[in-house]
Amino acid sequence: QVQLVESGGGLVQPGGSLTLSCAPSGFTLDYYEIGWFRQAPGKEREGVACISAMDGSIYYTDSVKGRFTISRDNAKDTVYLQMNSLKPEDTAVYYCAAGTLGPKSKRTRVRVFNPNEYRYWGQGTQVTVSS
Predict the structure, then answer these.
(1) For residue 97, what are the CA distances in angstroms to 39, 85, 116, 125?
(2) pLDDT of res. 1
(3) Between vectors from CA 103 to CA 44 and to CA 60, what angle results, nearest 5°?
(4) What pLDDT sits at residue 2?
(5) Separation of alpha carbons 48 and 51, rounded Å
């Protein structure tokens, strides 16, 4: 069965840190772009970060730049989202997704952060930032 499996969510105080993991089942991430998305209650799903397994390109949405870091462990074929300086507004269900967005020249930020560009999705993991 082809799927993505996320882990690492939880409850953390403002200013704290969490690391999310995303691993594939039934396929390899080698030829994909891997994105992290989040969805808060009553809001649309938004793109947070993306990494290309093809060329290592990395993209962040402005609200998380300098606080979140996306990375990939090639040996484990796992993608991580290190989240520091967490804020209450980061509270959401976080999803990882895999898609093929083509060469770097065609990966506009609009496409990179568009959920419709991604084929495989994980089940989501809850991140709650609260004191």
Answers:
(1) 13, 24, 10, 12
(2) 83
(3) 40
(4) 87
(5) 11
